[in-house]
Amino acid sequence: MTRCVILAAVVAVGPAACAAEDGTTPTPVRSTDLTGADGGFDEHARIAVVVPAGASAGGTRGAKADATADATPGATQPGVTATPTPGLDGAFRDALTASGYVPDVRIASRPDAQSAAIVAAAMAGAKVVVVEAVDPTALAAAVQRAQDAGAVVVAIGEPLRKGGVSRPVVSDFRLPVGSSDADLVRRVVRLTDRLQEGRRPSGE
Fold first, then answer.
1. Whose CA is closest to 123, among 48, 69, 32, 55?
2. C-alpha distances in Å from residue 181, one per residue of 87, 143, 171, 176, 185
3. Residue 26 backbone phi and psi in degrees, to 5
4. Cα–Cα–Cα angle for 115, 119, 120, nearest 5°?
5. Which residues partner with 28 through β-bridges?
6. What is residue 166's predicted lDDT score, i.e. its pLDDT?
7. Which of 159, 163, 181 is nearest to 84 (CA)?
8. Distance of CA 104 to the CA centre of its chain
């Protein structure tokens, strides 16, 4: 049975509701539910990853693409030549698929495109949305909509915040960038496994 799970951020962002299966008034799901027997979500859930084009180079983290560029798998825009880093989007798809999830990898390199990707992934039913933001302070509204839809939002690198760098964190968890694509992919899958099992990730 698929369950809808929402976590509070490092600072509280408020509960989100998921529709009850019998059509009654939905019951808010709180962060403490994740550690209970009724926590977690379906083993074959949709897991979304939103990363900028060229998020890394040669498997080494840290070389981002121009924030004005945008690309999606299998599609190009006029005058835009940026493409996903070879192998990174595939690595996420392969690793998530091997773990039994339905991968939803989206390449977006502008804040507006990332916001749209986050919302679209959540509306498509993603239980976890992992985001490497080009602007960690520009995605708060999209993060809130994803959380309201029942998704856990995980930031890669800087936490996602509401407004400036001193404002409250809105993402539920954060993963350090790490030293390599392979390391990042492994940690994303490990964190997802813990969320799926209804356990709060430790040390994140």
1. 48
2. 9, 24, 21, 12, 6
3. -65, 150
4. 115
5. 17
6. 79
7. 181
8. 10
Question: Token pair 């030549």 is at which residue?
Answer: 81
- Pairwise CA distance, residues 122 & 95, whole Å: 20
Listing DSSP states for 67-116 in one string gives TT---BTTB--TT----PPTTHHHHHHHHHHHTT-EEEEEE--SHHHHHH
Q: Report the alpha-carbon distance of residue 3 to residue 21 in Å, rounded.
A: 10
Calculate what percentage of the chain has a pLDDT beyond 70: 63
Report the predicted TM-score, pTM, of the whole model to 2 decimal places: 0.71
CA 91 from chain centre, in angstroms, equals 16
Rounded Cα distance, 162 and 190, in Å: 27
User: In this predicted model, which residue has the larger pLDDT, 176 or 64?
Assistant: 176
| Residue 141 host element (H or E) | helix 140-148
Long-range pairs of 61-66 with CB within 8 A, sequence gap ≥ 24: 61/177, 61/178, 61/179, 61/180, 61/181, 61/184, 62/177, 64/134, 65/109, 66/109
Largest distance between two CA atoms of the chain = 52
Torsion of Cα atoms, 17 then 95 then 141 then 148, to 10°: 0
